[in-house]
Amino acid sequence: MSKLNESKEEERSKKYSQWEHLAPVIKRRKKEKERNNKARVKVLSWSLIFFVEQATNNKGSFKL
Fold this sequence. Notes:
Number of helices: 2
Distance between the termini: 69 Å
Largest sheet: none
Shape: rod-shaped
Strand content: under 5%
Mean pLDDT: 81
Helix content: over 70%
Structural class: mainly alpha
């Protein structure tokens, strides 16, 4: 059983070793994507707050 696992592991390492040099690039892009998503959420939440404030400015009644 362990021989089978070892051969699978070797196969996997051969398969992914050709992409290993891209690991830092992938990590950086993932971080950038997460950062952009957080920024997008902040912008959307602030724009929603602003919209609701503007819409309810008329004596608390909701008006578009």
